Structures are given as C-alpha cells and as structure tokens.
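User: Run a structure prediction on this.
Assistant: Running it now.
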Amino acid sequence: MLAAAQCVEVIRGMLADSDGLARSLEEAGLIANNAFLPPLADRIIAAHMTPEEHEKAGRVRYPIVLVYCDRMQNQHREKFRRFSGTLRLAVEVRVSADRLDQIQDALYAQTEAVLDVLERNRGCLESGAFWNGKYEVDFSTLRRGGAQYLQSARVLLELEVSRD
C-alpha cells in the first residue's frame, strides 16, 4: 500500500538527513573520538532482508540501518477512509566488528542515535501519519557475519495512519 511506502521513506529520510543520525552521534560526543562512525546515507535503506541475503547481494559495509513496514492493520476507525489504522515500522540497526568487546557498545550507540532522531521528530510525520512517541527495542543475539561478528537491534514504532 502506498501509505506504508511513504511512511517508510519519511523515516528513512529523517535518519539519512544531515540533521539525522550523524548529528545525534556527534552531539553524544561519539564521532569526535572516531569511536562510532555514523552510517552513511547510502547505508540507510528501505529494505527488509536478512543479513545473509544482504551479504549475498553484494559487499555490505557496516553499520547499516534498514527501515521497513512489518505490519499493517486497517481498523476502519474512520468510516469513509480507505485506510485508517496502524502501521508498524521497524528500524533495524546492524553492526559488525572483529572484537566482541566493541560490538555491543557500537550497537547501543547506534540504537540510541536512532531513538534520538525519532524523538526529535515525534508527532505528525506527514499528512495523515502520526507517531505518539512509543517504541519497543529488540536486541538480537550475537552471531557470525559481517567483519567477524554481527549484532542487530530492531526499533518498532506504531504509527496511526488515516488515508483516503
């Protein structure tokens, strides 16, 4: 549905913007000492794929951020609207490192930066889409992949959407 694609692109654009992830990491003082580099705009993509699929598709550079819609629920709250319900969007942060002691700090820093960007943009995201600020974060277990080890965090947001 068009509503899902538009909302995914709005969130992806927020994160990739110069006022997005790079700013959040910089304000936290994490870029100055080169501890955590922000994902470049070309590594913030609208896609829903496993790390294995992504690595098979070509060379992957971490950190990477995936934005996608993983659930739509049309609740027909508004009688004459084509869609009035919720979209659950996911922002998945993936980091990779060759040392175990680096990966978890990097994942937490990148996830906090994503949350900072989202909090700064809470409310009306675009015409007919509203985010009230609630979220849930799921952290995956550490596994082989990327440079040596791979770990990810998935931020889940539920948007209220009303479209003709």
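The mean pLDDT is 85.
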